[in-house]
Amino acid sequence: MADQTNVSSDLIWEICRPNNAYLVKRKSGGGSQFSKDPLNLTNKHSRKYAGFVNSKAVGVLPAEKGGVTLITKKTKHQNRPAANRHEVTFAGNKSGPKVYKGIVNYTAKQNYRADLRQEAVARASAIREFSRAKKETPEKKVRGAKAKKTASATES
User: Fold this and answer.
1) What does pTM read for this prediction?
2) Mean model confidence pLDDT for the chain
3) Is there a contact between 110 and 56 (Cβ–Cβ < 8 Å)?
4) Alpha carbon distance 156, 153 (integer Å)
């Protein structure tokens, strides 16, 4: 009984919505508001995606060597921030579909919010895509007899 919170998550959101440590306000772009919360999958400042408010939240962060770390919030230790997170790391050498299936299976078996599964997979996909090394574009080949002739004339 001591592990349950006495305050509803709706009340926490209404109190913390205008100002909190994760809120990023921008005057450009019509006064956009974003969130730096690690348990926020879309970085939008909204009640649905706020990880510090919801009792069950999912976050995806980059791991070393192109891997992905899945962070879930435990419901058991809500008043102990150091003990209320569980992390699962998917290595970078696994194929993309295996990582995405692992994220979906883990969140489904632990009865986490089904509405966040697609966002978690999209975030993991974006992290994996941007952690890969970019290939250099090859030099364009000269095609045609006239082009080869002019290219050899300019080289010598």
Assistant:
1) 0.76
2) 88
3) no
4) 6
